[in-house]
Amino acid sequence: MHNKAHFVGLDSAGEPIYDNRRPVPALRFRGSVKLHGSNAAVVFGPNGIGFQSRERLLTLEDDNFGFHAHMSGHMDELRRIAGLIATQAQVSP
Question: 9, 38, 42, 73: which has the highest count of C-beta atoms within 10 A?
């Protein structure tokens, strides 16, 4: 990181030029507590619409906090959204 702050360009041979007199920027930030949660996604693929967590495909028997069960009740809307995405991306749904 120190080199990035002092980098000013390349010389005629393409080698980096550093100016160590340039001040290193002071960074200010505010930290926050990471909240635990769950990851869930809707998958639009060649085999239809599915649901997944971060690490696995979901089923009604192996759900992720009820995500699959809930989203299964919205299939008409999900198909409509998949069609809109396919049209915009110019691919087949």
Answer: 42
